[in-house]
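Per your request, structure below.
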């Protein structure tokens, strides 16, 4: 898409002209539609997407499926893979998936769901984060069948004139329909003009890529709709929109986030990943099955029926933890992680314990736990001792005043925090 194309519409609208009779939906198309709808929050407009699928089947031309991610942080967690899993399903159905790295838009800063302006990233930060993004996404997507694009390809050449012409295609009133903008305006919280450009630029990405379907989280719905409207304005057939739920973190309440420390990183060690998955509640387990598992709907329904009939939920959770761990590591790593988890549950010490050298013996147990980082403070350490959550070499400690002499031993706090400490004198 060039700057000159901003000034006018193509002579013909791409896609199915208005009034064209609806295509019949074959069994294969209906199955593809069911796969697409699994676990989604919304599919807009479903009837339009069904026709896109039918036309794709008839012509043999794959649909163009777009997912844009701003490289605001260098690492992905399994919450990010909810939408990546859906992309993989669509990829396996034979469609062209486009992994769009928002190197341009990330320097604006996405205001979605925020009540303050997000500081834009520098070019250096964006490039550093983008280096690891696709490598990690390729743990879910088939890299060889994925089209990788950067939105600076068409956004940088726009220039000031093109940006002004693009901005003329959307009104302030429509921007203010966005919930977070409305709340900030009513509360007197500043809204910078450049924040209005973000949904416009994301929408323009869909125009440049001629997207048939765009995916995103539920918090991206407004931005996705802007893309649909801009495509109409440029004479393209509008994209359909698929929003995926935001996965709750390990606490089962807040959405998964590194800042909330309730996440499972997709590059974490297998033992850590397995243990975190086993820590989710029996109720939340089914949410993770629906959004993360590649098992069929029928298989998951069978597992639910077995649990309702008396099967131990822990056994089903093990199956989930093994599936996810194997996806990002290997089947052998998942088996080893299960063995490690069983060993820990029996009070055993895992093989991959981090090590630390410290001086200062003799030292109180609470101060040592703080120095090792196993507890954030001495008061937290004392609480953990009171609760029976501290072990030394596998033995539960109950004395908060315990002094430790020089030596090497394994500290454990809770079920998953371990440290092998070699303690010397001051």
């Amino acid at each position: 898409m060039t700057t000159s194309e901003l000034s006018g519409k193509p002579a013909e609208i791409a896609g199915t002209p208005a009034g064209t009779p609806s295509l019949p939906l074959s069994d294969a198309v209906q199955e593809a539609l069911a796969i697409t709808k699994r676990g989604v929050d919304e599919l807009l407009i479903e009837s339009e997407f069904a026709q896109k699928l039918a036309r794709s089947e008839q012509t043999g031309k794959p649909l163009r499926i777009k997912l844009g991610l701003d490289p605001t942080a260098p690492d992905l967690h399994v919450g990010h893979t909810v939408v990546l899993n859906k992309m993989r399903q669509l990829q396996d159905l034979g469609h062209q998936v486009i992994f769009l790295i928002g190197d341009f838009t990330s320097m604006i800063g996405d205001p979605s769901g925020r009540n303050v302006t997000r500081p834009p990233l520098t070019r250096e930060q964006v490039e550093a984060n983008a280096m690891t993004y696709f490598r990690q996404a390729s743990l879910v997507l088939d890299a060889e069948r994925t089209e990788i694009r950067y939105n600076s390809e068409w956004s940088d050449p726009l220039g000031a004139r093109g940006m002004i012409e693009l901005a003329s295609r959307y009104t302030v009133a429509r921007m203010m329909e966005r919930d977070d903008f409305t709340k900030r305006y009513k509360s007197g919280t500043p809204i910078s003009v450049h924040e209005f450009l973000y949904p416009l630029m994301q929408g323009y990405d869909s125009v440049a890529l001629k997207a048939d379907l765009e995916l995103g989280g539920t918090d991206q719905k407004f931005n996705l709709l802007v893309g649909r409207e801009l495509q109409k304005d440029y004479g393209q057939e509008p994209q359909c929109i698929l929003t995926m739920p935001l996965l709750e973190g390990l606490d089962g309440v807040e959405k998964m986030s590194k800042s909330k420390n309730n996440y499972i990183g997709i590059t974490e060690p297998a033992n850590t990943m397995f243990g975190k998955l086993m820590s989710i509640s029996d109720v939340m387990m089914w949410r993770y099955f629906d959004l993360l598992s590649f098992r069929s709907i029928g298989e998951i329904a069978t597992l639910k029926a077995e649990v309702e009939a008396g099967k131990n939920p822990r056994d089903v959770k093990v199956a989930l933890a093994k599936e996810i761990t194997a996806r990002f590591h290997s089947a052998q790593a998942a088996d080893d992680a299960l063995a490690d988890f069983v060993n820990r549950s029996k009070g055993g010490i895992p093989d991959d314990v981090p090590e630390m050298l410290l001086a200062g013996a003799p030292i109180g147990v609470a101060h040592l736990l703080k120095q090792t980082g196993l507890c954030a403070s001495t008061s937290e350490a004392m609480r953990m001792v009171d609760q029976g959550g501290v072990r030394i070499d596998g033995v539960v400690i109950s004395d908060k005043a315990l002094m430790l002499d020089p030596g090497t031993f394994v500290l454990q706090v809770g079920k998953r925090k371990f440290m092998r400490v070699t303690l010397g004198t001051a």
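The CA atoms of residues 36 and 86 lie 7 Å apart.

Regards,
D.
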